[in-house]
Amino acid sequence: MDDIDKKIVRILQKNARASLKNIADNTFLSSPAVSSRIEKLEREKVITGYHASVDPVKLGYHIIAFVSLEVSPMDKIQFYEHMKSVPNVLECNCVTGDYSMLIKVAFPSTMELDVFIGRLQKYGKTSTQIVFSAPVEPRGVDVMAEMGEKE
């Protein structure tokens, strides 16, 4: 990836709906050149998808929580399949530390979160943290950091 590719990625992370013309204007390339670069970044799996950011509260999901879970290695495959099937699971990460999994979830109520945790405990011990606020929202990787550029 060169610096122009990084600028394209930065623009698309800020706004996945940015037009080719807008990206071209910001990178001093033609629209077809930008299109070609984006296709290459997609083929190389640098760009893995395009997403809309939504407000979970406005969709009725008032409880965001992180659940830490201790899963035995022999249960991981079954556990992963279960996590993929639960739509309330926003992320599931295999991590180091006292717990082997860190799961980000969204639920309309603490009662529904409680039911989820109860089902999860068949895999092992849990610890749950409910989010009060998120002073830093999820964001993309700062591809320009190594270039010394800030937004």
Query: Looking across the biggest beta sheet, what order are the strands in?
Result: 2-3-1-4
- The CATH topology of the largest domain corresponds to Alpha-Beta Plaits
Average pLDDT over all residues: 93
Q: What's the shape?
A: elongated
Helix/strand/pairing category: alpha+beta
Provide tags for this entry.
single chain; 151 residues; alpha+beta; Arc Repressor Mutant, subunit A; Alpha-Beta Plaits; 2 domains; 36% helix
SSE inventory with pairings:
Blueprint lengths: L2 H12 L5 H8 L3 H13 L19 E7 L6 H10 L3 E6 L6 E7 L2 H11 L5 E5 L21
Antiparallel strand pairs: 1-3, 1-4, 2-3
Brief rundown of the structure:
Helix content is 36%, strand content 17%. The chain contains 5 helices and 4 strands, in the order αααβαββαβ.
Walk me through this protein's architecture.
It is a single chain. This protein is an alpha+beta fold. Strand 2 and strand 3 (101-107) form a beta hairpin. It folds into two domains: 3-51, Winged helix-like DNA-binding domain superfamily/Winged helix DNA-binding domain (Arc Repressor Mutant, subunit A), CATH 1.10.10.10; 57-130, Alpha-Beta Plaits (2-Layer Sandwich). It has helices spanning 3-14, 20-27, 31-43, 76-85, 110-120; strands at 63-69, 89-94, 101-107, 126-130. It has five helices and four strands; from the N terminus they run αααβαββαβ. A four-stranded antiparallel β-sheet has the order 2-3-1-4, with helices on one face.
